[in-house]
Amino acid sequence: MKYRADIDGLRAIAVILVILFHSKITLFPGGYIGVDIFFAISGFLITSIIYPKMLAGNFSFVDFYKRRARRLLPASIFMTLITLLVFAFIYPPNLFQMLAKSATASLLFVSNLYFWQTSSYFSPNLELQPLLHTWSLSVEEQFYFLFPLALFILTLLKFKKNVVLLTVGFACSISLVLAYIYAPNSLSFVSFYVLPTRFYEMGLGALFAVHLTHKPDAFSKIKYLREIGFICVAIAAVQYDRYLAFPSFYAVLPVLGTLLMLIDRSTTGFLYRVLSAKPVVFIGLLSYSLYLWHWPIWVGFEWLIDNTSALNMAAYFTVTFLIAYLSYRVIEQPLRLASFYQSAYTKPSLLGFAALLVASVSFFTLQSNNRFLQMNATGLSAYNNSLVSEPYRDRCTDTKRLKGQFSICTVKEGVDAQYSILLWGDSHASALMSALDNFSDRFTIHAMNTSGCPSLVETRRKGAEDCYFHNQFMQSHLLSQTDRYDLILDVSAWDNYIEYGLLETDVSQVEEMHAALQRTIAFFEVNHLKYAFVPQIPRQKTNIPRAFFRHQLGLNDQEEYVLRSDYDIKLKRFEEMLYPSKNMIALDSFFCDDEKCGGSQNGEIMYKDAHHISVTAGQTISYYLEGEIVNAIEGTGKTLEASAE
Predict the structure, then answer these.
(1) Where are the alpha helices (DSSP H) in 23-110?
(2) Which end of the chain has the least Cβ crowding within 10 Å, N or C?
(3) Tell me, what's the pLDDT at 402?
């Protein structure tokens, strides 16, 4: 296939969109579609190269995979090794273990499957994984393994063009249907990461390539295809955002836009001149190295500096570009040439490098990086304790995602229990199980928690349809068990849903939360169910265990806290939303003094991230919470007052 400078220009657009999105610059909130542009280009170009050879009978799988390996692997493997070595000195063991495992998955071309299995609403640490971006490389590599084989079989059987088009088109249709059915939400991310739901993005490119192989001038008389395609890509980049259930069918727009730009082979017009301009083409040539290095550099930048000032951002972009350029010139370009591998020193050098890589990955996977950290045992122990998962989480949270069905689980079955309570909520309720687990045997405790789903009646969360069914299930259960529970403890990240704009509504988020709370209160009271809401604890500005770890390394000397006055505003807002009900158990006294709400209390880390309590905090508040719940049930304290006034 003849070289086209405008395709490198299109690669430049793709990588710029991705880098801006990952660096949290909101100019293009849908910048992640840069990956989909790459997918579309890959499907189109690979098919354009191999399909004519298959028709001519001179296609070689060995030659194809050699070229792919020389093109992709050297720079990727080198980036993986350097990332492992650098982060061994700055990462805590829990994050580094994930990094070592993801390195193994990346080298085996299955990092997309690894990140799918470890992804969920409750795994914010995923964004701190320096090799997270390799999921898309694994998807492409899996495509390179499977699609050429399928296309070769079709041509070997001498199927005509229309049969090939129908077969590939049918596969794309199945892929699109699967992408829609399994669209990512707070319960499952399978559609985002796996080849079957991403195939249509590359498969559509293959369709165009097959058609153009037989009819090269098929689209030559249609004007402005490049411009129309660019508009499609621009709309997606500007209108999409991170809350979209992507890819689903939404990826069709940027993919088709990309393909329209690819099939327009005209060499005139303003857009063509822009895409073919030397600076733009230069970025396109660097696009693979830029993609490889931008993410681990960004993760390291966030971990070490955690400050996105203009100067720091300029430093990030400069370092990323320089390292990508060096990678391109020193590794990517020389090692993609067949002549490089003919030297007498090449094979021993490559074998030695491979041995070093395998030894490094194996060592770090088995031993972690404890020996490389400059941290005392006490500090490391406190950090590790803050990350301990709450008891019963695997059994009592996200049961739909993990087991395929909603279910009520038992946290505690008290011996001759006096009280029976039901915990209903999202991941904040799940975190609170660390407190409930320490209750005395006079309690029987059941729970039903789904991460990212507000525990409210008739309420929907954006991009998470299953949240509605989660709450429907809970309502049905409560209606069938109205005499079973002495108290319903309703716990969710109320402030988060409002401030991140996560509720589906035609009014403001505050108004919708108010209405939803009132609907839920009405449901409880009509059905004679005793209840108590737990307000959200103060949300910190940063991940508290991370800030603690960075402090131990001497990278951060500031105390992490939010002002008590700022938290009081949110607490008062929640109280007003409940009014006239006063059924509320607040935990602010454990997290705040008169002036501030800190991330640590008496030397203990109270959070497992920026807004979920740690197991240590749960144990601290357990006795108080048990007493307040008894008061709520028996009506002997001030926790609950009559709703009607």
Answers:
(1) 33-56, 61-87, 93-107
(2) C
(3) 67
